[in-house]
Design goal:
Order of helices and strands: EHHEEEHEHEE
Number of strands: 7
CATH class: Alpha Beta
CATH architecture: 3-Layer(aba) Sandwich
Largest sheet: 7 strands, mixed
Oligomer: single chain
Length: about 160
């Protein structure tokens, strides 16, 4: 399942602590209600799977995931607006799922805004299915927005 990057100038690597400022800048350019630097720092320091994608050594996006009790929870995948439509979100998703399988996860979960049609399309094409909804999950300009809950079975390394 390893992410296939068509451009030789594009690479995936684990996030480093010094990436957090750049990650926060992408987050602010991408969302009306961005995560804080403290949230990213906490994710990094507690050992969540944190990956970055770079183009020509420039940070183009990131993905954050927690793995515990044979489950993974994809918390955030984001690509800088200036790098979108290059399959970088797919590469990050594939990398996170591969990492989850390596850690023995048998199922992946995530939440997504119903208004994020591009992300929903990516997840459905990647084998996720809708399993539920969380009411008023996300902050929104007009109050709150629900979240769709999606899931995908995984085959841990050694069980394929």
């Amino acid at each position: 399942m390893s992410a296939v990057l068509k451009n030789a100038n594009v690479s995936l690597r684990p996030m480093r602590e010094h990436d957090i400022a750049g990650v926060c800048a992408i987050e602010r350019r991408s969302y009306d209600f961005p995560w804080s630097a403290g949230v990213f720092t906490d994710c990094f320091r507690v050992g969540y799977c944190c990956w970055t994608i770079l183009e020509n050594v420039e940070l183009a996006g990131y993905g954050i995931m927690n793995v515990a009790a044979r489950e993974c929870h994809i918390l955030n995948i984001c690509v800088d607006p200036s790098y979108r439509r290059r399959s970088y979100a797919k590469a990050l998703l594939d990398q996170l799922l591969e990492s989850a399988e390596t850690y023995g996860a048998t199922v992946a979960y995530l939440e997504v805004r119903p208004s994020n049609v591009a992300a929903i399309d990516l997840y459905l094409k990647s084998g996720f299915v809708r399993i539920g909804e969380r009411s008023s999950y996300y902050p929104a300009r007009d109050g709150r927005e629900d979240a769709l809950v999606l899931s995908k079975p995984l085959a841990p390394v050694g069980e394929k």
